[in-house]
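Q: How would the structure tokens look for this protein?
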Amino acid sequence: MSRADRHEPEWVSPVTTEVDASMRSAGRHLVRLLHQMRRPLPLGDDLRERTRAVTTRPFVPGVDDDAWLAVNNRAFRWHPDQGGWDRARLDARLAESWVRTEGFLLHDGPAGTVDGFCWTREHPATPGGADPAMGEIFVIAADPSTVGSGLGRSLTVAGLDHLSARGLELAMLYVEAVNTPAVRLYERLGFVVHHSNAAYAAT
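A: Here is the predicted structure in token form.
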């Protein structure tokens, strides 16, 4: 292992109390904790009735790129992976084989510009049946200007309804443990932590 490699964060999945103790005794400290949360589909009518319905539309490559980048980068200024995207990075992601633009949902605000999105992803069952087929809320955000409007919840429900309509019976997402408002939102929508991944760095 090179000197540079020793300073790269090391990801552990799933993290347990024993693993955490072992990493700390080896001189490494926790730098990120990422929860994978899951819930069954479809949503119950009670949750949908308590959520403001919004109209979404599919992302159109070459048309919506700049508007999406603006919202994404404002919403994720703090995030080490999702913040600071440019067109080259978006183009590379859109070229990946799993992407279905009909599952990349955009919301247009009152001014007619994009103010939120819910990008979904579909996962086939894993070989051996360790995990069933799942639908993922891959990345979701509402523009900071919409805070308090309930748009984030509405977009989450729209994404889950899309995945359910695709025939999926289980939904999952990843969320930073420090993002308390998001964790609480997902808990209110019936998500529970399935397992957590942790990144450790040398002290």
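The beta strands are 10-12, 28-40, 57-58, 104-108, 114-123, 134-142, 170-176, 192-202.

The radius of gyration is 18 Å.

Upvote if useful.
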